[in-house]
């Protein structure tokens, strides 16, 4: 399947902070968002781009078929919306209840066939990222750049993510902390430099605009070793997290907990 060099997919568009960045770089954007209230905000925010054909908004969840599916809208944090019941249960255990609604769904392969194979594919849909990765192989699409929200609960699942990416011929990786995107100047498609500051929760830059060196699989996995140690000791639903009030009275521990964040795995193919 031929890659569209001017196309980016924003799967899990949320309020559109990443979409805004991609548009400013000069890309066309296909955005996927299942939460109806967020869809309404995206339609308003990108009305001109939608009218001009530069922004396509798919108001559906990624699923295995075309039937409506359950979607859990988190009452506390909009970024925790999910179609995965196990993620909704995890959020509930953290004290963040969800409201269950029904939303339309679509297989990701259908979107690729309809809109094309993107140059960059950003995936951040709680608990369902791998549905998109699996669809890439079935449709013969291999974007130059891809990023997924990595597993933070299962080392086995993390290794499966790397296996899946390698099966698509991705061989270079970056491990990116979502909370550390700094403002700066970034290179647009036409070579111009644009100034941009990312909102909290954005997936941030990609490709050549992404800081740091590209790593082999083994080196990237080694980067995750201390990250998982932090997840297990100071992450969601650990002893320290459940006793956050007491932790705040110990500045060193509070500082360490503040470093526990979501991480994305970015991947690309080796040159040549």
The CATH homology group name: Vaccinia Virus protein VP39
Tell me, what's the shape?
globular
Number of helices: 11
CATH class: Alpha Beta
For the record, the CATH architecture stands as 3-Layer(aba) Sandwich
Low-confidence stretches: 239-258
Mean pLDDT: 88
Q: What strand line-up does the widest sheet have?
A: 3-2-1-8-9-13-10
| Percent of residues in helices | 25-40%
The major sheet is characterized as: 7 strands, mixed
Looking at the structure, the CATH topology is Rossmann fold
* Element order: H for helix, E for strand: EHEHHEEEHEEHEHEHEEEHHHHE
Question: How many beta-strand runs?
Answer: 13
Computed structural class = alpha/beta
Number of domains: 1
The rounded distance between the terminal residues' Cα atoms is: 19 Å
Strand content: 15-25%
Supply Rg. 18 Å
Oligomer: single chain
Structure description:
By secondary structure, the protein is an alpha/beta fold. It has helices at residues 17-24, 36-45, 47-51, 85-93, 108-115, 129-139, 155-167, 217-234, 239-242, 244-247, 251-257; strands at 3-11, 28-32, 55-58, 61-62, 69-74, 98-103, 105-106, 117-123, 145-149, 172-177, 184-187, 193-196, 263-268. It has a single domain (3-225, 262-268), classed as Vaccinia Virus protein VP39 (Rossmann fold, 3-Layer(aba) Sandwich). It is built from eleven helices and 13 strands. Strands 3-2-1-8-9-13-10 form a seven-stranded mixed beta sheet, sandwiched between helices. Helix 5 (108-115) crosses helix 6 (129-139) and helix 6 packs parallel to helix 7. 35% of the residues are buried.
């Amino acid at each position: 399947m031929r890659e569209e060099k001017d196309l980016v997919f924003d799967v899990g568009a949320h309020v559109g902070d990443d979409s805004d960045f991609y548009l400013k770089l000069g890309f066309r954007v296909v955005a996927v968002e299942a939460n109806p209230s967020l869809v309404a905000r995206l339609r308003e925010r990108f009305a001109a781009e939608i009218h001009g054909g530069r922004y396509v908004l798919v108001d559906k969840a990624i699923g295995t078929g075309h039937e409506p599916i359950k979607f859990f809208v988190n009452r506390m944090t909009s970024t925790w919306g999910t179609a995965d019941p196990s993620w909704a249960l995890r959020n509930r255990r953290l004290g963040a209840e969800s409201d269950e609604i029904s939303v339309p769904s679509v297989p990701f392969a259908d979107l690729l066939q309809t809109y094309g194979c993107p140059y960059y594919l950003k995936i951040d849909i709680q608990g369902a990222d791998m549905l998109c990765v699996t669809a890439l192989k079935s449709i013969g699409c291999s974007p130059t750049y891809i990023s997924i929200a990595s597993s933070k609960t299962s080392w086995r699942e993390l290794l499966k993510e790397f296996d899946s990416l390698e099966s698509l011929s991705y061989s270079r990786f970056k491990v990116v902390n979502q909370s550390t995107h700094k403002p700066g100047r970034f290179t647009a498609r036409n070579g111009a430099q644009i100034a941009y500051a990312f909102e909290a929760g954005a997936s941030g830059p990609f490709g050549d605009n992404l800081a740091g060196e590209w790593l082999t699989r083994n080196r990237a996995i080694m980067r995750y070793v201390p990250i998982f140690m932090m997840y297990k000791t100071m992450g969601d639903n650990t002893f320290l997290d459940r006793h956050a009030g007491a932790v705040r009275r110990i500045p060193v521990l509070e500082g360490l907990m503040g470093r526990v964040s979501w991480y994305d795995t970015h991947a690309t193919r080796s040159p040549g």
